[in-house]
Design a protein that fits this description.
The chain has 347 residues and is α/β, with parallel strands linked by helices. It contains 13 helices and seven strands. Bound molecules: adenosine-5'-triphosphate and magnesium ion (MG).
């Protein structure tokens, strides 16, 4: 009898054609849902070709909705079209200090410095000298709300002509944290990335699943289920698809069944946005579990749940999470030096 085991995956088989297509670094070849935003970014860059400054952009929108992917899409196209205007993308999540940003800028302008020992201002000075050789330059500070000290942007702005800046954040209110002097000099134009609707989520996830998984591994109904559970975050949706496929593989199933998706949803149950580190998630959870409490109590609860940050670092994390627009901090005027704060999750 034939086909008796056709639903079973043999030991060396896999459900994936190319798992790397689910990698966060992968830049999609098309993203029609962001055509307008992509065009607007391109328009802001065009004046650089005639040695004029274009407009600086402030891009904002929730996590996992294609901000970074759109920038990389435009930058890739730019690199393929011309070498006159050089795009530089800096991930501020992994480069938060002035020194780390300086090193990254230097590296991307073609200079190499040892990771330690050379002071940041010397690195920046040399990087600027090198960057001045370019006819046009566009520097994107992605996840800019992570940058500890924005004065590096001010310096670049002052010393580099023919340079555009793009700042990206999850938090549309983050601009309020920028020093007025820098803000007025940047003269940022807002570009909002709106949430995807359910239909768009379905389409994006189907497209990616269609490329990365073997034909017939996942059906439309399950994609719909996943899209509905992703809360508009494509990264979350993709993580759910991978997890479902892995669970199916573990069971030697040729198909993703509903039970795998349901288990994947349980396994990845985490209400925090995808762009947070584990420690940030832990701090955020403590705030969520103790909403409206004073910060000292939140910290105590955090410690009870295996948190390891010192109080000082904990406070720094709270500031970061506030800058990301996830919580509100309310002064109480009580406690030691009146420094006690109440913490609220932003809805
Ligand atoms: N319209 C789209 N078409 C195809 N893939 C998309 C689309 N939008 C987002 N994605 C994919 O979703 C994932 C998350 O997108 P991206 O990294 O650009 O999010 P983001 O808005 O920068 O989020 P964060 O604020 O957390 O940095 C990426 O893998 C990206 O390729
Ligand atoms: Mg991003």
């Amino acid at each position: 009898m034939e086909g008796l085991f056709s639903d079973v995956l043999m030991h060396d088989e896999t459900l994936f054609i190319d798992e790397s297509l689910f990698d966060y670094k992968y830049v999609p070849e098309k993203m029609p849902e962001r055509n307008n935003e992509i065009k607007e970014i391109a328009e802001s860059i065009k004046p650089l070709f005639s040695e004029r400054r274009g407009s600086n952009l402030f891009i904002y929108g929730r996590p996992g909705i294609g901000k970074t992917a759109s920038i990389k899409f435009v930058f890739n196209e730019l690199k393929q079209t011309s070498s006159e205007v050089t795009p530089i993308h800096i991930n501020c999540w992994s480069n938060q200090s002035t020194h780390a940003i300086a090193l990254e800028l230097a590296r991307k302008s073609g200079l190499i410095f040892p990771p330690k020992g050379v002071p940041a201002d010397l690195i920046i000075k040399n990087a600027i000298k090198k960057l001045k050789e370019k006819k046009g330059l566009i520097i994107c500070f992605d996840e800019a709300d992570r940058v500890n000290e924005l004065s590096i942007i001010y310096q670049l702005l002052k010393e580099l002509d023919n340079t555009n800046f793009i700042l990206i954040s999850n938090n549309n209110e983050w601009k309020a944290y920028i020093e007025p002097r820098l803000l007025s000099r940047l003269n940022l134009k807002n570009l909002e990335f709106k949430d995807y609707n359910e239909e768009q989520m379905n389409e994006i996830l189907s497209r990616r699943a269609g490329m990365a998984l073997r034909q017939g591994v996942i059906n439309k109904e399950l994609i719909n289920l996943i899209a509905g559970k992703s809360k508009g975050d494509v990264r979350k949706g993709m993580a759910l698809i991978i997890e479902s496929a892995r669970l199916a593989e573990r069971d030697a199933s040729r198909k993703i069944l509903k039970k795998y998706v349901e288990n994947a949803i349980i396994n990845l149950k985490d209400d925090a946005p995808t762009g947070l580190s584990n420690e940030e998630k832990r701090v955020l959870k403590a705030i969520k579990d103790n909403e409206g409490e004073i910060s000292g109590r939140v910290y105590a609860d955090y410690l009870n749940n295996e948190g390891e940050l010192t109080l000082r670092s904990f406070r720094r994390y709270i500031k970061i999470i506030e800058r990301m627009g996830l919580i509100t901090i309310e002064g109480t005027g009580e406690g030691f030096h009146g420094k006690s704060r109440r913490l609220w999750i932003k809805k």
